[in-house]
Design goal:
mainly alpha; Arc Repressor Mutant, subunit A; two-stranded antiparallel sheet
Length: about 150
């Protein structure tokens, strides 16, 4: 695949944006999704669920630059979106189970698109804040009794 080919991380981030945004729901029309897209914490959360790892800042930045440069995703004002070309790629990929989706998408990217190099940067602080937001959201809330008081164990 070489230095300029698609990396597995590119596919991982692409699939994460697709799933986080709801574009992966086959029967859901584009007009029923939130038009602003999804935040970085949502992308990181989905990526963690897919690969059991939170992508590093440099992984997200490199993947988004390549995907945005190829016209498959866009990022504006902190909102990640799948473009019409990205949605077309997603909907026409070979079907695969969730466990192999990232590998399948990497193959489709390699056959159908050339990686780009968009001018996009992710600051360390922005990545750290999104990781923190995701981690805080993933901590289960204490169970409460119907009266609204924490249960005593």
């Amino acid at each position: 695949m070489g230095e300029n080919g698609w990396r597995r991380t590119d596919a991982w981030i692409f699939v994460s944006v697709v799933i986080a945004s709801g574009a992966g729901r086959h029967r859901r029309a584009a007009s029923t999704r939130r038009p602003e897209g999804v935040r970085l914490a949502d992308v990181l959360s989905t990526a963690d669920h897919l690969n059991r790892a939170i992508p590093e800042r440099h992984e997200v930045e490199a993947a988004v630059r390549r995907l945005a440069g190829a016209g498959l995703v866009s990022v504006a004002d902190g909102w990640f979106r799948i473009t019409p070309d990205g949605e077309r790629l997603w909907r026409t990929r070979p079907s695969a189970g969730l466990a192999t989706t990232v590998d399948t998408v990497q193959g489709v990217l390699s056959r159908r698109h050339t990686p780009g190099d968009a001018d996009w940067q992710l600051a360390d602080e922005e990545h750290a804040a999104a990781v923190q937001e995701y981690l805080v959201r993933s901590i289960p809330a204490p169970r409460r009794s119907p009266e609204g008081h924490p249960e005593r164990g």
